Amino acid sequence: MVSDKKFIMGTYKRYPLTVNRAKGKYIWSKEGKKYLDFFSGLSVNNLGHCHPQILKAIKEQIIKHLHISNLYYDHLQVELAGKLVKLSIPGKVFFSNSGAEANECAIKLVRKYGHLRGGKRKAKYKIIVFDNSFHGRTLATLSATRQKKFHNGFTPLLSGFKQAKFNELSTVEKAIDSNTCAIMVEPVQGEGGVRVATGEFLRGLRRLCNKFKLLLIFDEIQSGMGRTEKMFAYQHYGIKPDILTLAKGVGGGLPLGATIAKDRIAKLFGYGNHGSTFGGNPVSVAAGLAAVKLLNGKLLNNVKVTGNYFMKRLNELKSKYPKRIKQVRGLGLMVGMELKEEGEEIVKKCLEQGILINCTQKKVLRFLPPLIINNNDIDKLVGTLDKILSS
Ligand SMILES: Cc1ncc(COP(=O)(O)O)c(C=O)c1O
Q1: How many domains does the chain divide into?
Q2: Is 221 touching ligand 1 by the criterion CB < 6 Å?
Q3: If you write DSSP's letter for every residue of 135-161 in order, what string do you get?
């Protein structure tokens, strides 16, 4: 095992695994042990590790150029933006490098909108966000993140975020005031414990936004790019956001963030209003373009089939261990199993058994496998969990 204590800041509690290489749904340690990946680098490697088409696109790009300034045109950026818009909402894209940056861009955009709507003397600036949300670690996105444990030691936070209750529409209507300009929500809360928005809630948010002329931001940084069987989770609900934020899987394994906004909102940004030196880097964009092309109907259907099977198998475990498992929930291959006890020991035992899973909110085992898994992989995980839970 490599020790990182001397030179790396201690922000990550790491597991005892030093990765040597990864391919498809497998990772190999430095010592040569093989692991089945049910975490996908936190919903990044949705197509599995090192997909040949993504590697090909990267190789073709790196011999052309690695970086050009955003002051020049890049046809791959235009192509990827066009594809993302076609798949989501008619509008325009701003490319960045990460999820937090994609959300920062969305926050700036809705503030611009609020300034124009409220006029110079009474700019609207408040954004309604939700308990257990997670939107990133920069100061603005940390302020939008409503989990106290992330705030400790970093106050004062940025003002202008008002908290309402996830899946409780009445709390949202109460939170709206004359300063409100937007609502920001994850259709499936990932870090918050894999909590899926109800249709009533999400459609209600759309209605409230229409009624009060607010902008609706969907943060699909974790739930997007095929993870839930649709390209974007909101597509399960029959409504559309005004702004959609993406990262993680959108770069096919390389750092990329994207903020997609309807035309009437996107046009509020003029020259110099926003920018990023590396945002939409040519290599990340090439990888992202290859990844988007690979997220086809056949793969999404695999997410549907394996997602249903996964739920069924986990619910069987729940029936077998009612004293240890509280609830199984999720959408597609974004799945959580809430325990009645802390889950970290189970994550460690899975690791020992050669399977990578995760735990969030202390008690929720979180599974984010690559979208290429099959029922045998699920059987392997469920069999391992069964053995662990029976002991
Ligand atoms: C829903 C959501 N939003 C934003 C982020 C922040 O993304 P990043 O770590 O790329 O800044 C995350 C990361 O887990 C996320 O899950």
Answers
A1: 2
A2: yes
A3: --SSHHHHHH-B-HHHHTT-PSPPS-E
